[in-house]
Every structure is written in structure tokens, then in C-alpha cells.
């Protein structure tokens, strides 16, 4: 049943709002580079609307509205629908059937130990003030394992916060294969080599950039919105005067510069310094103000976002074409996931009507 391993990528996002530069630098920008590398046989991006409904069940219109929004973010960032399949999770029934089978391979104790699940439960306030934890949210790691394995993805480029989810997926793969035979593909996580890109903090200095916390810079941000966000960004609260020595650690401006700025950016926008290390040294010594650093960051981010804005304007002018991309991609993904489901059911010996083996087994008893 095993087949020659193909190089397949799967990534995805919850459509709960516009994607921000944390998504972009953490995963999306890399997806574009991998897409254009020619190294992969198939690339899928899954819009995880069903997973988003686990904690937005009372507001399905929000999810519906953001299906097109997120797709526009993908296309404007450089995702090419001729090279990458964009599909919608809720329209792929095989994913839910796989999730149900995988539930028998995971204990509740193991789910409760998942650090990502624990962090998300705390951030969303579940189990506090009478807010119960939805079962669908609780079992998200199993659902994500179904997503990844259904596409037989062996490469999953994600942010650092998703590592526990990939580890749990690998456990499910190993458990299934040892129980039923080598059917599922063991996925490998692909982290960004730049550690600053793996988990970009919020503009307010919080550990995570989050739509719910309002500390994001969105991919569709205008120049005015970008200016407002950068100029209000958290720095070193003790760096009151320009002459004061400043701290780099925990200073969002420098974290963002680590993620985005190049030596060429310094030559173009801030020739007083040859590179970021020189700017950091001056800031820590004293004699460099926050405003100058923020102005550099604003120009660097604007340079990154400007081609994204232009591509977005093009796609926004043809929403029916965006809809067709989603429809075509989802149909292709359905074929792929149904094929995997068929192999899984055969391995589990529950493909009762796929052949006449069940009859012959009884006849020869």
C-alpha cells in the first residue's frame, strides 16, 4: 500500500480575520518561496474554516466573510493558484471521517498536555467565568493531524508555536501505521531559519501577535495604518532620553527589524549605519532615539507591503475569479483526501463494500 514518497506541502490558516505580518513572516512569505522553488510535487493551503467555528460557533457569518479575505491575502502575498492549491476545510468530508478514526488513537490525557492547546484555552478564556471548552476545540490536534495526513504532506512550514501540534500529529501517524500498516506519511516541520520570524510579538510587546488582542499589523494595512502602528510600538520604557542607553531585548522595534531589515535597507533608508548590528550597538550605548528606529522600520515594512497592496488591488477587482480559484482548488483537494481515506479504510478493514472480500471470508469459514 505504501507508495513512492512525493514532496508535498500543507499549510493553512483560520479565517477569523485578515492575515497579519506575523503570519506573513512566520509562514506565508516562506510558502511563496517554496512554491517558486520547484522542489515540491504538490502544495496545498487549507483555509481552516471548520476549525475556526469551534470557538466562533455563534458567528458563522464572520467566518464566511473572511474566506475571500484570507484568499485575497494569499494571492496578494504571491501565492500562485497555478502552483498552489487553495482549498476550504469544511468542503472536504474525508477530513472529518479521518478525525473520527484518529480519536481512537489519542487519550484525553495526551490532549491535555499539548502546550499549544493549553495556551489557546487560556488566551480565549475557556473554563473561566462559565465559558465551557468546546469539544471541537479540545480535539483540534487530532483534526489537524487529519488535515496533514489526508494530503500525505511530508513538509509542513509553520510557526514555532505549532511545533507541539506537529509532534502530536507524528504520534498519531506512528500509532496508526504500527497498528494498521504503513499508510500515513510522517510529516516534518519546516521552521524559518530566522528565529525572529518564528513568533513575531505584538506591537504592544505581548508575546504573540493576535487579531483578538488588536496588536497586529495587517497585510492589507494602508500607509496611514502602518504609520500609526509603528509609531505606537512598544520599545524600552526606560529609554526616556536619546542619550539614555537602551535595551534591545523585548524591544519590538528591533525584533521587527531583525525579521525584516536587510543591509540594503540600511543603505537605502538609514545610511548612518551599515547594518542592524551597528544600529543596535549605538542604541545600547545611548545617543539614538526611538523615533529614528521606528522611521526606519516603517520604511522597511512599507517597502515589503507595497507590492502586496498592488497585487491585492488587482485581485479585488475580480472577486469572481477568486471564487473560482477556491472552487477549483477545493475540488482537486477533495479527490486527494478521498483517495487517502480509501486507503485508511482498507487498512482498517472497514471498506466493506469496496470489494467482495467480506462475502468470501464468510463462505470459506
Question: Gist?
Answer:
This protein is mainly alpha-helical and 365 residues long. The protein has 17 helices and five strands.
What does this structure look like?
The protein has 365 residues and is mainly alpha-helical. The protein folds into two domains: 8-200 and 318-363, Rossmann fold, CATH 3.40.50; 223-314, Tyrosyl-Transfer RNA Synthetase. The protein is built from 17 helices and five strands. The chain has helices at 21-37, 49-52, 60-77, 94-102, 108-112, 115-124, 135-138, 140-150, 163-180, 195-198, 223-231, 252-260, 263-269, 276-285, 290-316, 319-347, 357-363, and strands at residues 8-13, 42-47, 85-88, 155-157, 188-190. Strands 1-2-3 form a three-stranded parallel β-sheet. Strands 4-5 form a two-stranded parallel ribbon.
Q: What count of helical segments does DSSP give?
A: 17
- Percentage of residues in DSSP E strands: 5-15%
Helix content: 40-55%
Radius of gyration, whole Å: 23 Å
Give the H and E element order: EHEHHEHHHHHEHEHHHHHHHH
The major sheet is characterized as: 3 strands, parallel
Distance between the termini: 27 Å
Category from helices, strands and their pairing: mainly alpha
Write down the overall mean pLDDT: 91
CATH architecture title of the largest domain: 3-Layer(aba) Sandwich
According to CATH, the homologous superfamily of the largest domain is HUPs
List how many beta strands DSSP finds.
5
Task: Please report the first level of CATH classification, the CATH class of the largest domain.
Answer: Alpha Beta
What general outline do the C-alpha atoms trace?
Answer: elongated
Amino acid at each position: 500500500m505504501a507508495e513512492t514518497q512525493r514532496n508535498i506541502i500543507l499549510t493553512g490558516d483560520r479565517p477569523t480575520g485578515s492575515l497579519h505580518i506575523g503570519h506573513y513572516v512566520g509562514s506565508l512569505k516562506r510558502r511563496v518561496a517554496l512554491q517558486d522553488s520547484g522542489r515540491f510535487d504538490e502544495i496545498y493551503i487549507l483555509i481552516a474554516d471548520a476549525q475556526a467555528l469551534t470557538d466562533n460557533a455563534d458567528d458563522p457569518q464572520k467566518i464566511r466573510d473572511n474566506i475571500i479575505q484570507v484568499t485575497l491575502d494569499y494571492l496578494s502575498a504571491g501565492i500562485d493558484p497555478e502552483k498552489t492549491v487553495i482549498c476550504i476545510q469544511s468542503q472536504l468530508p474525508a477530513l472529518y471521517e479521518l478525525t473520527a478514526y484518529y480519536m481512537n488513537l489519542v487519550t484525553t490525557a495526551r490532549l491535555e498536555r499539548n502546550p499549544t492547546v493549553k495556551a489557546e484555552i487560556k488566551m480565549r478564556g475557556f473554563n473561566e467565568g462559565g465559558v465551557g471548552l468546546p469539544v471541537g476545540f479540545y480535539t483540534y490536534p487530532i483534526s489537524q493531524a487529519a488535515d496533514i495526513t489526508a494530503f500525505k504532506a511530508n513538509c509542513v512550514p509553520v510557526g514555532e508555536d505549532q511545533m507541539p501540534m506537529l509532534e502530536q500529529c507524528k504520534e498519531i501517524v506512528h500509532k496508526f501505521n504500527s497498528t494498521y500498516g504503513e499508510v500515513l506519511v510522517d510529516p516534518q516541520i519546516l521552521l524559518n531559519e530566522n528565529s525572529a520570524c518564528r513568533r513575531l510579538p505584538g506591537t504592544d510587546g505581548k508575546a504573540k501577535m493576535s487579531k483578538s488582542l488588536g496588536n497586529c499589523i495587517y497585510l492589507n494595512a494602508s500607509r496611514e495604518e502602518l504609520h500609526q502602528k509603528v509609531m505606537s510600538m512598544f520599545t524600552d520604557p526606560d529609554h526616556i532620553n536619546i542619550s539614555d542607553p537602551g535595551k534591545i531585548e523585548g524591544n519590538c522595534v528591533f525584533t521587527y527589524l531583525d525579521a525584516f531589515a536587510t543591509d540594503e535597507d540600511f543603505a537605502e533608508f538609514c545610511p548612518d549605519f551599515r547594518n542592524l548590528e551597528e544600529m543596535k550597538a549605538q542604541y545600547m550605548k545611548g545617543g539614538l532615539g526611538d523615533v529614528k528606529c521606528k522611521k526606519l522600520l516603517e520604511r522597511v515594512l512599507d517597502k515589503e507591503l507595497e507590492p502586496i497592496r498592488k497585487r491585492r488591488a488587482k485581485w479585488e477587482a475580480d472577486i469572481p475569479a477568486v471564487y473560482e480559484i477556491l472552487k477549483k482548488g477545493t475540488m482537486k483537494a477533495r479527490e486527494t483526501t478521498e483517495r487517502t481515506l480509501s486507503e485508511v479504510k482498507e487498512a482498517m478493514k472497514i471498506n466493506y463494500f469496496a470489494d467482495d472480500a467480506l462475502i468470501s471470508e464468510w463462505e470459506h469459514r
